[in-house]
Amino acid sequence: MTRVALVVGALCYFALAAGLFLFAADVASWRDAMSRDDVRYRLRPDENDLWQPAVVLPLGIAGDVLGVGDDVRFRDALRALRLGRLDLGITSDPKLALSRAEARARLQEIAGGGGDPRRRSRALGLLGVVSFASAITEARDQALYIQDATAALQGAVALDAANDEAKVNLELALQKGRALQPSESAGGPNPSPGGFGAKGAGAGTPGSGY
């Protein structure tokens, strides 16, 4: 009986040692993939196997222990946003449209999740950028896009007061919103005497504060 117990104990020991070895190998694979693929992303964002290391243990155990899931999801959202080419404005390219829709969906998922507030703030800030870009490049529904951008950017600042990028973009969105409002002399709610009514095109005052 003692001999059987020793054999079983030895087998358990070797199984545990093998499991720890494989776990360490998977951890190393994740760390290598994150640093390596960050460089690959800058050069070739269109590659489909970024941040997907070859691991041995099932269920993503090493990745869960390292807590890289949120990092990978955020990187995937950035990749989709970059592939969407917001700088091109309105496009009929279905590939770009799909990338933009994917980016928005991924960012909304991150922003509405329960993870790191700073990451959620960045996601909201990028959602604000997406809406702001639409307001710049599309002639219709500009005011609605600006409202969406302003709300997202305000949420980003509320989550992380150190998010200076969101603060700058919020100021730009507010300026754009004021510029879209009709001035009183341009047929606004209270036209001033002697104004030109609906013939004019009102604009706010760029550069004035919040």
Oligomer: single chain
Content-based structural category: mainly alpha
Shape verdict: elongated
Number of domains: 2
Number of strands: 0
Strand content: under 5%
N-to-C order of helices and strands: HHHHHHH
Distance between the termini: 81 Å
Please describe the biggest sheet, giving its number of strands, its sense, and whether it closes into a barrel. Answer: none
C-alpha Rg (nearest Å): 26 Å
How much helical structure, as a percent, in the residues? 55-70%
The averaged pLDDT comes out at 81
Q: What is the CATH top level name of the largest domain?
A: Mainly Alpha
List segments where confidence is low: pLDDT < 50 over at least 5 consecutive residues. Answer: 183-210
CATH architecture label name of the largest domain: Alpha Horseshoe
Q: Could you write a compact summary of the structure shown?
A:
This protein is mostly helical and 210 residues long. The protein is built from 7 helices and no strands.
